[in-house]
Amino acid sequence: MNANLYARLQEHAQTNPRKAAFIFQRGAKWETCDFQKLFLLSEQFAGSLSAQNLRAGQRAILLTPPSPEFFALAFALLKLGIVAILVDPAIGLRRVTACINECQPEIFIGNTLTHTLRNFFTWGTHTLQHNITIRQLQKFTDYQLPDQSLQSPVSNTPILQSPILSSSAAIIYTSGSTGLPKGAIYSHENFSAQLEMLNTTFHIGADEVDLPAFPVFALIDILLGVTAVIPDMRFPPPAKADAKKIVDSIRRFSVTNMFASPILLDRVTGYASAQRLSLPSLARVITAGAPAPVSVLERATKLLPHAKIFGIYGATESLPIAVINSREILEETSQLSALGAGVCIGKPVQGADVHIIPISDSPILTWDASLELPANQVGEITVKGKAVTKEYVARA
Asked: Distances from the Cα of 181 to the Cαs of 87, 101, 140, 210, 228, in angstroms?
């Protein structure tokens, strides 16, 4: 796979220009953004950002609700070598404030609301040099591109050379479930390896249609050349997602794959079962974020008898780490879990070198094979691989 993430978008725009990159609902209307349109919008945003005298290596907070513009801006920052900082507002505005002050961004890109919040909470007061609104950038772009502009020869646009693999591509903050969110610094190599691992583990074909529950998975779809169906651009918390919207979208667009949290899977399968609706197009469901309860897997397996349902274990710092098939859980490991054996997270995926070591709060200065515990011993998980991020922002 091409290690240049932006070049992957360009290649998709060249080979499948009219293929839908994502299909989304705006109000009551469904709209489509194909790969060529997304690429051209990204190019225009990159030009608009360049006019702001921005430099490669600078850090930019991209804080705006998911939208076609959000995805195009994410790729525009990649093209320019500007490090995008992604913070989920769901962690709470106080934590957002701490994260932004910690990562010391020079650039803030957002809509009117997020800029209002920036002023109110004095985000990045001592480091921000450029405060840019989406509307400001849109003065130089037009999302509703006329048909003749869609004939722009994308193939004549030179493909960028691959960046230095170790250089920073993005900073993604964790959910903060174990304390203050930490900013994991992703290199281009990390992203490229992550895509390779997902592709090797799940064999997601370019002709598939995915319904992603999280914005980052929509970006992964675009990089893989897969069409993403997004029934709600707000990406609400899983517990508040509209199951009817999701089920209707799966049936309408023949979705073949779904990335979902266990809570969302529970809501979707519960609604479909109650309404006696089948979802025959779904061939694969991938859950992440927490172990799926046995009751949810039982219902999902009954509703989707021909689909493969997987649970992946991982973290913001390294994803995926391990994978398990739901049938293995239902037929074997759930019985052991009921006896107190814990939750089985499966086997390490190809590309993740996993070892279990003694639990300790002390830093490990030098790795030694003797640190590894023998089988059936309780310890903590260590992971090595190209997808594993190497450092946090402002953390030892």
From this structure: 9, 12, 35, 28, 28
Do the Cβ atoms of 84 and 78 come closer than 8 Å?
yes
Per-residue tokens: 283: 């061939």
Contact 241, 264 (CB under 8 A): yes
Interatomic CA distance for residues 222 and 213, integer angstroms: 14
Widest distance between CA atoms in the chain: 65
Give 264-291 pLDDT, tens digit per residue. 999 999 999 999 999 999 999 999 989 9
H/E stretch holding 44 reads helix 35-50
Host H or E run for residue 203: none
Q: Which residues make beta-bridge pairs with 110? A: 63, 133
Q: Which two tokens stand for residue 91?
A: 């962690």
In the numeric block, the tokens 């927490």 are attached to: 290
**pLDDT reading at 143 higher than 60:** no
Closest-CA residue to 386 (of 224, 182, 223, 194):
194
Contact 357, 373 (CB under 8 A): yes
7: left (phi > 0), else alpha (psi -120 to 50), else beta?
alpha
* pLDDT-above-90 percentage for the chain: 77
